[in-house]
Design brief:
about 180 residues, two-stranded parallel ribbon, 2 helices, elongated
Length: about 180
Amino acid sequence: MLDKTLNNITDRLKLLSEEHLMLQDFNVGDTADIGTESENGRKLKYPYLHIDYANTNYSFGTGRGIGFKLYTMTLVVLDKISDSITTSTESMSDTEGIISDIIQFITTDSSMRDFKIPVSSIVASPVADNTNDGTEGWTCQVGFKIPYGFCSSQLPFIKENVLPAPAMCKPVLIQNSNDTYS
């Protein structure tokens, strides 16, 4: 069994932003901080995909503790009126097209099959940064339902044998963000 992590989802969304022909950049952080600079102060290129980790919901399995994790992320596609984008209508149309592409990708592409989207529809809404940045675009929330297969004996506690392994535990393999496994 290969457990997926928040890093795996984030890495896949970053790769998606690099592969999309219109997106020029990718950023992770609080949606309150969307604008012209990334978390580390790097100037962002427009249009870009911004993700914010909204929450995680733990669903419990039958007698086995956590059965699934539901990671909810806020996705925001932003653009800015510039020399090449001259009107708000053009900017909003372009970013709505991009967020539609992202939704289509995460709900249908085979590389996302391990990340279950537990809804039958996703609502996107317009967003505008009314500060001097003047960015605008579209936002939506997406949930990624991930199986969680750790048994209590496999948790990273300091003391060995704190909890005996239940007979139903199966070995798990975790893919790290650097493509190693543990």
